[in-house]
Structures
1.
Amino acid sequence: MPAKSPLLTSAVLLTWTVLACWHPLPAASPEDKPAPEVPPEAPAAKQKQELVVDLALIRRAVVNGILNAREGKQALEFDRLRRDKKANALSTEEVDARLQKIGLRWEAGVALLEKLADATSILKNGGFETGESDPADGWSVAASHPPTRTKATSHGGTYSVHSKLTNDGATPCEGLLRCQTPIVAGETYRLEFWIKPVAIGPSYVSQYHLQWVGSGRSTGFVAFTAKPGKWTKITVPKLVAPPRAKQAFLTFRFVTGAVEGGHGEMYIDDIVLR
Ligand SMILES: [Ca+2]
């Protein structure tokens, strides 16, 4: 057997050493990039999470004034119908017969379940429907031009909150809408709300700010906007409560800059954190 050349032996050893030490780096994924703490203005969720309709949820919706007792019963029965239809491919006649028994049209049933989804929110009175005074139960307002509760328009129910700012000369205006709710550190939350801008004038900015009380962290002020004239849903997914966070302190800020003619007007409704 011919002796191995020392050169070949060294080459083999080197290859083995390199192979043994080489750990391929994982492929770069979007998560590797330093992501902003929260995504900026995000479009409405394309896929809604499946709503689990049970008696506890119905009870919560009724207690919070999201549905009345009759609607609660209808929502429960409609959800059963929806599931049966999906599983058993019911005929049109069978669906119609059951809808008649429930006392609903299909679209009305879907609308009830959408309202019911708000009952999964950990924010109380996100639709501003309850409260004797301005702004509404569970909310506070502040700054030079505080927003007001109104019946002028709403996304859901009767009420929404309105902010209208018009600079006097170049003096800026600001309105704050706030609420606070207990949260669980480490859990992932999702913020949803509806806005209807009326006018977005020079220097006008609308923002949300979520402070994780107890952790010293926040999302910072994040701007949101939409086309004036119609209700638009803003969704902020994947808000992870940091360690030691005990409460979420949510602020909506409407503000103009120090410019002549600065103005802006917006309605906000159905604010949900879940
Ligand atoms: Ca409302």
2.
Amino acid sequence: MDVGIIGGTGPLGRGLALRLAVAGHRVLLGSRDAERAEGICAELRDVAGGALAAGSLQGVANVEAAAPDMVVLATPWDGALATVAELVGTLRGSTVVSVGNALVRHGREAHAVVPPRGSVAAMVQAALPESHVVAAGQHLPARSLTDLGQPFAADVLVCADDADARQAVCDLLCTVDGLRPVSAGSLAQAAAIEAFTAVLVTVNMGHRAHSTLRLAGMTLPAHGDGRPAGTEDAAGKAASSAGGGSRP
Ligand SMILES: NC(=O)c1ccc[n+]([C@@H]2O[C@H](COP(=O)([O-])OP(=O)(O)OC[C@H]3O[C@@H](n4cnc5c(N)ncnc54)[C@H](OP(=O)(O)O)[C@@H]3O)[C@@H](O)[C@H]2O)c1
């Protein structure tokens, strides 16, 4: 699959680009400066040490990275709106994965701040009404993604209002070694998912760690989205019994 990454030159964008390219996807790593993007891609090809197919990782301008049907928005959260405002037409009809967390640093802690509309993902969805915004990847430690030599296992909470887009992102994440997507409902869940990142970052700073999320107590296929075929009702009952109301 072709995947674009807008703002792909930062730690998270690089890590995702590398893992997706290793998984066999064609990644367009975007930047405000295409030359800078190509330089980052050259570094990532070195990291991969020949494991990438020719042409699987290309550095491009953000507008080119916005062209595929699957696009990751990996700018800092406070640059997201201005970035997508210039790409509304290009992103129309596409699935846009919002990885952003609205955090501020207070000494040895990260604190969550509330962006307009309650989450970065909802803010981006409002700016891109004709795109399908999916929140995912907020808890991934960028450094672990770029370290191909270390074993890596992470659950990735995936939420969206469009069920097909959410499933498409789960399917994409399933192809990446070590990632286990977990369908987590509608985009309303993004506020809690993003805010929890502040706790995770604080824990990691305090413990000098790169921990991520791993859910206990639920049986998932090795590479699954937590919603095995034919279990729609079971998922709804689980939500009710946890006080979560009806399934989105
Ligand atoms: N770092 C992590 O471990 C991590 C983990 C999970 C989620 N996230 C989220 O992922 C996103 C990216 O994180 P990151 O640490 O990779 O971010 P970053 O390095 O601060 O930014 C990523 C790239 O965005 C571009 N950029 C910077 N400021 C911009 C602006 N005002 N407008 C448009 N583009 C701008 C820059 O690329 P160019 O200069 O090349 O255009 C930069 O290299 C953030 O929203 C973060 O909350 C990060």
